[in-house]
Amino acid sequence: MRSMIKSVVCAMGFLLGGALWLGFALRFDDQKKLDFDPNIAALKGSPYGKVLVLMMQGKIEVYFHEGERHEDMEFLRPNTEDGHHEHGENCGCEVDSSEGEVDENALHVRLRRYFKRLDAFAHRKTDGGELSPAHKAYLQGVIEEKLRFAYELDPANYQNYEGLYLYLTSKGLGHSGADDDAALDLSRRTLAYCRQEEVDPSVWLTGAAAAHDIAYYMSQYPEKFTMEEADKALSDFDFCLRKYENLLDESHEKGFLVDEERLVLMMERASQLLTRLKAQQVYVRRSIRESEGVKKKNQITPDKQ
User: Fold this and answer.
1) pLDDT along the chain (305 residues), means of 10
2) pTM
3) Is 257 helix (H, G, I), strand (E, B) or coil?
4) How far apart are CA 134 and CA 100, in angstroms?
């Protein structure tokens, strides 16, 4: 009899302990207390991390072509959509328009195309067939890991942010669908991080890109936001661009050296973002106004019931 009572007490103790352990585990998980984000050698966010990420950084368009480079498509797939397609905002491809019209029969042009063709075939996929679901899932995991690691090393880097954002909002490489909510969270964290910068003007371009993506999310899901929230997002977008211009002017006044190629790249990005700002100022507000109009029509007052 005593042994049975002892067994029951022990069993109840184990059950109670297990329930308490599970309850606290779920509570700590909700509070993110169980998350472990190691920062080995304090690389993340450090100057060394910023240099390291530049060394490991690849072009964004490589991911859009499943590991192959866009500039090789005209040689590897000349008769496909990948070989000839229109470049748009979401393409992710860099276009070189500096050469203008050239004589295709000139010797130096033919030699250059020949060497480009050799280089393209050196980077081609050996299997020209469709990727299997398992291979796509593998690529998805590897690419996501690389993009997230690069972003963590330097969240203010424009290409790091854009690469991870485009990955989250794309539907290729094994994605069942774009994760717009995760992309929104990334944009908000990036904007908050960039707002701490007081020296480097390029950081504020990354912040402006994040602010643009927040505004774009609002235009896609206008029912979730008010006009005041939209105005705040557009104000953040405009503030980032003005802060970039102010810091760039200060760097010139103080004699800080800015690499010419980097300066040209920043000016191109700033011009593109300014164009997007003007478009979003119209598009976001219009989307929310239309959404608010639909809500008002759907509201049924007690008098009309």
Assistant:
1) 72 76 69 57 57 58 59 62 45 47 73 78 65 73 80 89 86 66 94 92 95 94 91 95 93 80 90 92 89 72 50
2) 0.66
3) coil
4) 43
